[in-house]
Design goal:
With 121 residues, this protein is of the alpha+beta class. The protein has a single domain, classed as Trna Endonuclease, Chain: A, domain 1 (3-Layer(aba) Sandwich), CATH 3.40.1350. The protein is built from four helices and four strands. The model has no long low-confidence stretch (mean pLDDT 85).
Length: 121
């Protein structure tokens, strides 16, 4: 279920912006929302646990698939630090063939769309 250009434009309008910039998504929640919109636009299904207090510690913020690829991304602010549990999850997931497990930060905005397309993986 792809996000259409019109839906993506509506998303940008709701964010009060015409284009994307690091300033617009500096918070973790803002970056998660931005990545989810880009992923949906590219045909990915996205999963994000909104309240992880009763979930397994350290599980990545976003799990996304388009049926060909599985992305498990931990979203952090520019200065956010991984917990030991988050680092453990990512280390094990990145060992699984075909899984793209990584930390994503606002300074990665320029690369995120490419990563979603499978570039630089």
């Amino acid at each position: 279920m792809r996000m259409s250009e019109l839906e993506y434009a509506a998303y940008l309008h709701r964010r009060g912006q015409r284009s994307t910039s690091a300033d617009a998504v500096l918070t973790e929640a803002g970056l998660v929302e931005h990545i989810r919109a880009l992923a949906k636009r590219g045909g990915f299904l996205c999963y994000h646990t909104h309240d992880s207090r009763k979930s397994e510690p350290g599980f990545p913020d976003l799990v996304m698939t388009n049926g060909r690829r599985l992305l498990c991304w931990e979203v952090k602010t520019s200065t956010g630090k991984l917990t030991v549990a988050q680092a453990r999850w990512l280390a094990l997931l990145e060992r699984v063939p075909g899984v793209d497990a990584r930390v994503v930060r606002p300074q990665d905005l320029g690369a995120i769309e490419g990563w979603l397309r499978g570039e630089g993986v």
